[in-house]
Specification:
The complex is a heterodimer. By secondary structure, chain A is of the alpha/beta class. Chain A contains 17 helices and 22 strands. The longest helix of chain A has 16 residues, at 170-185. Residues 493-500 of chain A have low confidence and may be disordered. In chain B, helix 6 packs antiparallel against helix 7 (132-151). Classes of the chains: A alpha/beta, B mainly alpha. The interface between A and B is large, with 42 and 32 residues.
Chain lengths: 500, 330
């Protein structure tokens, strides 16, 4: 149906795509994988008319088409669901669905028919909401489903999903797959872009691998396995599932006792030196709220937190940092990075706040700061043009490395990481995993929250499972425990506690 | 491959906004010199006395603009400076003229107005969690209102009581405003660029949540910023009272917007996180020179606001265009 032929695109000196050719069969679910910077986004933007290729051709049903702008792409029946939420929170679900293409009668909004159609698509995507509900009141996962509903609304020929699951909870992922299968049955073609290879195997018929702007290959999914895909994506062998050899747990570094707060209750556990403790649970189970409270970002109602035997419950964030605690927050865009500051200033921020001597203390010495930043860049192998690089120019993986790096330089003893590898490519992911293991081997206590079970299983010595704000159990970090974890996380009834 | 941004002469311009603002200022002075000599007024412009006068009057905006730049960098806005300046002149005048307190003590008490208004603004912003626009709008109303209540429509004449050859530490009074402006600009510029507190102000303005997650005491830093802003505004007020010689409730009307304009011309971004204290003072000087120059050309007095408006927009537009070009290289 869609044939891409020798598409090339450069941005200045960067060659984003180099003579990429492949075919997407009509009615298929076509997976597109590759590391950040492999050219997936560029290709997608070319299909949606955001960019024009420097050379190459696109054929739709054997007819040469040129897609000059997003409007033309829409007219061809192309729709896209972006990874980022691009909705107006102050408008209702219905208004968002029809934004820019409102149905009118005699020049007035035809609310009745729009509402009817809105109900249909909401039902299809499994959102049980009144179309007049404000989008701002929905959770991130629900917003993402509204975006999907918006793409489905126009009965498209081709839907592109760009990392659609990174903001979704498990049960919405299931309904997304159900929607994709329904679309597939209706003959709609789906281009599915994801970092999560399990999803490709679950949903796609064909898969295309891009690397460094080049086309590596297109295969039926039955002919490849995860290992081979990863190898093609990164161009080298990489094993994400290596487990750490049994480490000897040392003294107690972090102790939490009877901690209650916003969305979690009566939580008690310990993290010892040299240990990696995983925290599992569905989104909304109170995981992030728990670790943010331990770091002092949120208030606790009752309970105590000890760091190396010292009660830190009432302390400020900066005091906790000084005592050797760090938190890599869940969302690097919102709470990890300051985009108006350049790379070195982001790397030095917590150090500056606590008056780190290496940076000069009260006065931030430019030379020391540059040196500090260079060491962090080297340590984490951050790929940048220099210490004065704008944060916007970094890829997701490198941005995440900056968020990790700004803490790493302060040598925290208790290092909490909330979704440390969300939305980053496999290469960067493996590097962050190795870093976590290395830090634990050096005798630090690591507390890792993740929605990806394989990640937790590969990293953790033991895993705490949360549901509805409580720790429902602790399991070993073995592959064998996977079912046990899901059982504890989901509880007796499936889907409870996610959608209040 | 990314292009190396920030190297070479163009890099200097884009990285150090102060350099380009200073260039604009120099071109402006040169332009007025040429224009005024063509028209035969050059003796009124290009001389030490006139420059002294420009510095003297600009300092009233310039010192307040130092605080405004810091507040804007922190992601806030301050609408109160004009009213705080007026209330300060009134308090200073009242104590000096009515109560016969010495000038230094009256000035010091006037200075306390800034502490109070800054304190009120930071309380409303950090404790009551009002948006800075609304909080400082309130402070503006309260300050201006108090000034009118105290003066009851009259004004205090200080000039008669200050001897013509008044000196402070051996320096004539006329030199003080300019000196203060330059010294404060340098001190606070270095504070913002080099100190850990200055860096935290930038971080809050850029992304308050990320700053908080990095250990920044957001509330404390904001209180500090609005207190400094208030105190610098009332310092402007003391200078206005002493230099112009009167305390009135209706002076400095609309200055808050001129002060914000100066900060923006000097590189401050109203969305926070970016800006320059030195730039804001240079921006004030650009407007100071503009007013001074236009004033000397007969018949242009009524065009002043119009031209000032056009200049603000023009400088910011030119800046936006250069920023866009730089950004495309990524």
């Amino acid at each position: 149906m869609l044939k891409i032929e020798e598409i090339s695109k450069s941005f200045g000196a960067t060659r984003a795509l180099r003579e990429v050719s492949f075919e997407i069969k009509s009615g298929s679910v076509h997976g597109l994988v590759g590391e950040n910077g492999a050219g997936k986004s560029t290709l997608m933007k070319i299909l949606m008319g955001v960019h024009q290729p420097d050379s190459g051709r696109i054929y739709l049903d054997d007819k040469l088409v040129s897609i000059m702008n997003p409007e033309q792409a829409n007219q061809l029946g192309f729709r896209i669901v972006f990874q980022e939420i691009a909705l107006c929170p102050n408008l209702s679900i219905m208004e968002n669905l029809f934004l820019g293409a409102e149905w009118t009668r005699f020049g007035l909004m035809n609310f009745r028919e729009m509402e009817e159609r809105a109900r249909e698509v909401l039902e299809m995507v499994g959102l049980d909401f009144w179309p007049g509900a404000l989008v701002g009141e929905l959770s991130v996962a629900e917003k993402q489903m509204v975006q999907i509903a918006r793409a489905v609304l126009y009965e498209p020929r081709l839907i592109i999903f760009d990392e659609p699951t990174s903001a979704l909870t498990q049960d919405y992922i299931e309904s997304l797959f159900r929607i994709i299968r329904e679309l597939h049955n209706k003959g709609v073609t789906v281009l599915y872009i994801s970092h999560k290879l399990e999803e490709i195997f679950e949903i796609a018929d064909m898969v295309t691998v891009l690397r460094d702007g080049g086309h590596i290959g297109t295969f039926p999914v039955e002919e490849v396995n995860e290992e081979r895909l990863v190898q093609m994506m990164v161009g080298r062998e990489l094993d994400l599932s290596v487990r750490r050899k049994e480490a000897k747990a040392g003294e107690v570094l972090l102790k939490v006792e009877g901690l209650s707060g916003d969305r979690f209750e009566e939580v008690s556990f310990e993290v010892r030196a040299g240990e990696i403790v995983g925290v599992s649970g569905l989104i909304g189970s109170g995981r992030s709220e728990l670790v943010e409270s331990i770091f002092g970002v949120r208030r606790v109602k009752s309970g105590r937190i000890w760091l190396r035997g010292r009660d830190i419950t009432g302390m400020s964030i900066s005091e906790r940092i000084k005592l050797g605690m760090a938190l890599v927050p869940e969302d690097r865009q919102i709470s990890g990075l300051v985009f108006s500051m350049v790379l070195k200033q982001n790397l030095s921020l917590p150090g500056v706040v606590i008056g780190n001597r290496e940076l000069g203390g009260i006065v931030v010495l430019p030379g020391s700061e540059a040196d500090f930043a260079r060491r962090a860049i080297e340590k984490l192998r951050i790929v940048v043009s220099g210490i004065d690089a704008e944060m916007m120019s970094l890829s997701g993986g490198n941005q995440q490395k900056v968020v990790v790096g700004k803490w790493l330089m302060l040598n925290p003893e208790v290092f909490i990481m909330d979704e440390p590898t969300r939305g980053i490519d496999v290469g960067a992911k493996a590097e962050i995993h190795n870093l976590i293991r290395g830090l634990a081997d050096k005798g630090n206590g690591m507390l890792v929250v993740s929605s990806e079970l394989p990640e937790l299983l590969a990293l953790s010595d033991r895993i705490l499972v949360m549901r509805e704000g409580r720790i429902k159990g602790e399991v070993c970090g073995d592959k064998a425990c996977e079912e046990e974890i899901m059982r504890l996380a989901v509880g007796g009834m499936k889907k409870e506690g996610v959608n209040q | 491959m990314r292009k190396e941004v920030g190297k070479g002469v163009r890099g200097w311009f884009s990285r150090y906004r102060e350099v380009s603002v200073f260039m604009i200022l120099c071109l402006e002075v040169l332009g007025f010199y040429v224009l005024l000599s063509q028209l035969g007024y050059e003796r009124g412009f290009f001389n030490a006395d006139n420059f002294l006068m420009i510095f003297k009057y600009t300092s009233i905006y310039g010192i307040a603009a130092v605080g405004a730049a810091m507040i804007i960098i922190s992601g806030g806005i301050d609408l109160a400076p004009g009213a705080v300046i007026a209330l300060t002149t009134v308090i200073t005048g009242h104590l000096f003229v009515r109560f016969g307190l010495p000038l230094w003590l009256s000035g010091l008490c006037g200075f306390l107005v800034g502490l109070a208004s800054g304190g009120l603004a930071s309380f409303l912003i950090t404790v009551i969690k009002l948006p800075p626009f609304i909080a400082t709008l309130g402070v503006m109303g309260v300050s201006r209102g108090l000034a009118f209540i105290i003066t009851k429509g009259g004004f205090y004449d200080l000039s008669g009581k200050i001897p013509d050859d008044f000196r402070l530490i051996g320096i004539p009074l006329d030199y003080w405003p300019g000196i203060l402006m330059i010294v404060l600009a340098i001190i606070f510029h270095l504070f913002m660029v080099l100190s850990k507190w200055g860096r935290q102000v930038h971080a809050i303005g850029g992304n308050e949540v990320a700053a908080y997650f990095s250990g920044v005491k957001v509330g404390k830093i904001k209180v500090m910023v609005y207190l400094i802003g208030g105190m610098l505004a009332s310092l402007s007020g003391v200078i206005l009272a002493v230099v112009q010689g009167h305390g009135r409730a209706d002076v400095a009307t609309g200055y808050e917007l001129d002060i914000i304009a100066a900060a923006v011309v000097g590189g401050a971004s109203l969305s926070g996180g970016r800006g320059s204290v030195l730039g804001a003072v240079l921006g004030s000087l650009i407007f100071g020179v503009l007013r001074n120059g236009l004033y000397q050309i007969a018949g242009l007095t009524f065009y002043e606001r119009l031209i000032v408006g056009i200049v603000v927009v023009a400088i910011v537009v030119i800046d936006q265009l250069t920023v866009k070009k730089e950004g495309k290289s990524v």
